[in-house]
Amino acid sequence: MATQDADRPEDTLAGRVGTREVQVLRSQGRPVIQRLDPGAYRCSRLAAQLADEWMDYVAATEITSAPSGAYRRGIDLFCIAVDTDPEVNPESTDLETPQLARVLARWERQLPAAFSPGSRWAAFIARALRVLIIRRDDHPDRPVADEIVRFARGPAATHWRESSERDEFSRHDKRALIKAAWAEVNALEHRLDNGWQLAAQGRHPKQGSWLHPPDLLWGISRGTVAMSELRAQLPSHVGEWPEELRRLVAGSDGTIMPNLAKRLLIHHLTAQLYPNTMDLHAFRVLLMDATGLSSEEVTSFGVKDVEFLPQGVRLTIVKKRAGRVRHRAFRDGAPQPGGVEQQAEDRGEPATEGPATHDLHDRPRREVTAIIQRLLKVTANVRERLPEVEDSLFVRAAFLPNYALVFRRWDPDSPRTTFSAWLTSVGVEVSRPAHIGRLRKSTKVEKAIVARGRVGIAADDHTRETFAAHYAQGTTLRIISGEVITAAQRHWFDKAITGPIVITPEAEAAAGDSARLQELGLPADQAEGIVTGQLDMGLSHCKDPYDSPFSSAGELCSVAPLRCLECRNAWILPSHLPQLLLFEQHLENTRRRMPPDRFTTIWGQTYTNLRAVLADRTVEEKALAHKHIDAGTAALHLPLTAHQEFDR
Q1: What predicted TM-score, i.e. pTM, was given to this entire model?
Q2: Are 378 and 314 part of one and the same domain?
Q3: Do residue 99 and residue 212 come from a single domain?
Q4: 259 with 198, same domain?
Q5: What phi and psi values does residue 600 have, to the nearest 5 degrees?
Q6: Does any domain span residue 618?
Q7: DSSP string, 27-65
Q8: Which of 41, 85, 304, 516 could form a disulfide with 79 if both were Cys (CB 3.0 to 4.6 A apart)?
Q9: Is residue 168 within 8 Å of 442, Cβ to Cβ?
Q10: Which residues does 644 contact at the CB level (< 8 Å), separation at least 6?
Q11: What is the distance between the alpha carbons of residues 72 and 54, in angstroms, rounded to a whole number?
Q12: 253-273 tens-digit pLDDT
């Protein structure tokens, strides 16, 4: 074991010798001890310094076992590198040794080679070690060499690798998941109901029989029979068991493995009374689908966080990673995709017909109230045995290898009880990777579709940055991009088709005939105003100056005649050609005076429409119009603001 030099002030303050250890919590809330022995390395003084900082950091931040283990692993990998580095003497090296900075830089650059391509662990571990060094330097009584401090506070030598975000489940895969989850919930409820009914019919095995299932269930349900006692009382030879017990441990082909028979029987009996890890996957799938919440959120509220309302439920939801607590209400009776018949089919139930009632409203597959009520029911007996867990409804019974029955939080990460293992057990095949996070992403896609690509609505339960980094890929990104492109196209298309109406010279006779104008769709008063010139705005006639798209409804247009060439109310007659030519000259002067991008922004659409109108006029018509201009019989009256451009 390593000992620390008592002459050093930081070691005197720490007072630590030997193996360092911390107690941290796993994600399921269970405590675990993590240890690091500085004496296992030649650079034991360096290892002890880093281990002390690790202990202090874990105590101050209360991080869980996974990140704490990453810090410990960083110390281990670095100390191994120091032990084998030819430039330093490991026995005399510590954080006050300037040469250690070069070793640290070399180790950090080579660290990615120790991990699989694309792994982000190298960057995480390198930064974890920097955190410990910086933390030590921040302490006034714990000296660190300046060269090491400059490197630790400088730019990272190992960068985060690009990660490929998972796409959401397809609609086909998601529907298969939901249907399988409801089937599992129905089977679980049926199994537990039968198990407790049998237990109620039994008695203590000492008074009844150690080979009678109701008696065995009675003893397990009341906690009066230990699993080790049950194992000892069962005959060692399976042939001495009654047929009903042998059926419980037989494989699908009818064969029995004698060495596993007792364990399989006890596991089967326990499952008749309490839900196990595999059973709770179905509830997580249903709650994530119904609420749109993450896996962490749907498994982190307890009975005290559930408030049933007259027509729904209110949940207190905790997201530990973001440090957020929210209260959300979910109402019953809202229409659900697929209709009542399809929802009943997903649940494995017959479709219900007849008038809508409260019971009917509480049955569709996405009713959060119904899912939580059923989860409360199946976990009730486990929660009675586990009163200390108040922040989760996901609790289950576990049968340990030493024949002990324990009640714990849900742990879906064990190798044989993962989400992938559950999919295999229920016979559902989905595209890879089979990760529960893809279900959360599916709800994001649905929200993006409903929000028509508006990020502010789709990212309502976290920041826009998080949405962009983790959810705006794949189908979601295509939806958002498609909506943006469609909106832009619609905007410019509307501008193109809602411009002025141009009457050609061939139809000039209609401009002086009120009846002909009414045939073109104008009301009688507007047609009369055009004929008499009362609606002449200079560049065009306006069928309704009080219905301008550029002013508030009912107010007189405030931008005529400058925006008439962009207005749906404008009627351009052949007699307006001289004014149009004068306006073209005005815009050409403005275009030469203004920067191109600014001119396009302010006058681009008007200039384009004007050139389109003039392009339809013949050279002879334009020459005649210029004669009127030269003779002074045609003039263009523009507001003073048209002759002054303000930089704003």
Answers
A1: 0.57
A2: yes
A3: no
A4: yes
A5: -65, -40
A6: yes
A7: TTS-EEEEEE-GGGSS-HHHHHHHHHHHHHHHHHH---H
A8: 41
A9: yes
A10: none
A11: 7
A12: 777 888 888 888 888 899 999
